[in-house]
């Protein structure tokens, strides 16, 4: 392992800020430093915990499966083991003023308000149909309060099983995006070049360049067919790309940000992504798509009926009644199971005469047949509208709404507005032939001096044997409010006794002896190695001193941590506290913090 980071400058506040952000990985930090998104992916790829998934019997035959089936299998594995978490109390709160002051050298408050969900951006009103602060539960706090919403490594996601109220792992959307991207490579064998991470102001997901394309969306995945199936789950999956601008695209060749002028991602590959994503979000109109659209826009079902031949007679039934039967069945309106669905409905639900003031889906099914109406064909669209000319509602409006359902234009960072890095200036991240975590670490070690994202990945990986301590300790002192609140009524001595008690297991969530958890991870999961507990106690002490002295400025002048054999010794002022440690890394001298 190398002992110094060529791309990190301890004399530069901007460099220290970026590297400390790689430790806490809040949504805000990922927005300001988009390289961090892919750095977290690489941190997971270096984790033995992730590669251990391949040993699960669930993946025993995955190598023989197609790429899409491999991803489907990965999806089920993740769904069975992780839940979605966006609880404000998990990683605590900060304030807009504090974060604006922290990042004022990198971005203006005006731009933040236009593009970041925590600073005023509310997305399209269709997206939430409610105030964003109320949506996220922030309305119970003052208007300047915002959550940290830290992004978790695979270890931190799995460690939720130790937290009260959780039966397994958990994480928020950026965590799931990073987890899917890293597991798609390490477990499902999808090449890095086919994996793109997409962030919008309110969501993060991935696009896998496989077949027609696959979107990952929190715990689930969305294929092109699923994108158009009209279900509530698909509607939720569509919302971000339908209504928001993609702020960040991250890839193994680099990234592009909608706000910042410089782009490092390979321009040709970015263009291919835009084309593929545009095709993924566009489809022709068929009878099945029409039926799916009415499932999606359920309020329009009352204008339709379905005609059905039973015992040689044509019968009629309200469309909304048939759709209601889908809720307890795997059969669907619009596909080849529709006849079976109708056959399950009792005779007395049907009418012998057409329902008045309703369009007949049976006639539309016969008209569309096996054909496809191209959404770019004016003639085809007009002919379809003519089929809905006589009815209780504007057929033209229905078709126009259906076109929106069938054709979404992704709002991506504009190529012409970016200064593109010269090809080859920053080589793409390569992990060809890597088969385990150790090989991934070795391959990335060879690349970190020439690629800042890779270098940041070791910081996100919490590798304190080859990454600088100053950013890690800065993050521990400044951005761990949960343990501070938890110890609010305790003295430092009482906090030490509490951390040393049976309430906290003497085990780190990170298996490797050179990796360390942050204080709020120790506190949330009620476990930590002695060195991690010492850093947690130091964080609590610094916070108490700041609130006592000057109302919030953290100072570490009288704090020191040393390792003496198996003892981690923390000095806070005149007091000394000792914890037993199994970690093999040693904090630097106090003057080098």
Give a short summary of the structure.
The protein is of the alpha+beta class and 593 residues long. Helix content is 42%, strand content 13%. The protein is built from 28 helices and 18 strands.
Roughly what percent helix?
40-55%
Estimated radius of gyration: 27 Å
Give me the number of helical elements: 28
Relative strand content: 5-15%
Q: Which ranges are low-confidence, i.e. pLDDT below 50, for 5 or more consecutive residues?
A: 1-5, 124-130
Assembly level: single chain
| Shape estimate | elongated
| N-to-C span | 21 Å
Q: What descriptors fit this protein?
A:
single chain, 593 residues, alpha+beta, C8orf32 fold, six-stranded antiparallel sheet, three-stranded mixed sheet, 28 helices, 18 strands, elongated, disordered N terminus
Question: Can you tell me about this structure?
Answer:
The chain has 28 helices and 18 strands. By secondary structure, it is of the alpha+beta class. The protein folds into three domains: 13-282 and 410-460, no CATH class; 287-406, no CATH class; 469-592, C8orf32 fold (Roll). The strands form six sheets. A six-stranded antiparallel beta sheet has the order 8-7-6-5-9-10, with helices on both faces. α3 (35-45) packs across α23 (452-460), α20 packs across α21 and α26 runs antiparallel to α28 (530-549). The chain is elongated.
Give the arrangement of secondary structure elements.
Blueprint: H1 13-24, H2 27-32, H3 35-45, H4 48-51, H5 67-81, E1 82-84, H6 88-91, E2 93-95, H7 96-103, H8 109-115, H9 125-128, H10 132-135, E3 145-147, H11 154-158, E4 169-171, H12 173-186, E5 195-200, E6 203-208, E7 214-217, E8 220-223, H13 224-227, H14 232-243, E9 248-251, E10 254-257, E11 262-263, H15 267-280, H16 287-296, E12 304-310, E13 313-318, H17 319-325, H18 338-343, E14 359-360, H19 361-368, H20 378-387, H21 395-406, E15 419-420, H22 437-445, H23 452-460, H24 469-478, H25 481-486, H26 492-500, H27 519-525, H28 530-549, E16 559-564, E17 567-572, E18 575-580
Parallel strand pairs: 1-4, 11-15, 12-14
Antiparallel strand pairs: 2-3, 5-6, 5-9, 6-7, 7-8, 9-10, 12-13, 16-17, 17-18
Helix pairs in contact: 1-23, 1-24, 3-12, 3-23, 20-21, 24-28, 26-28, 27-28
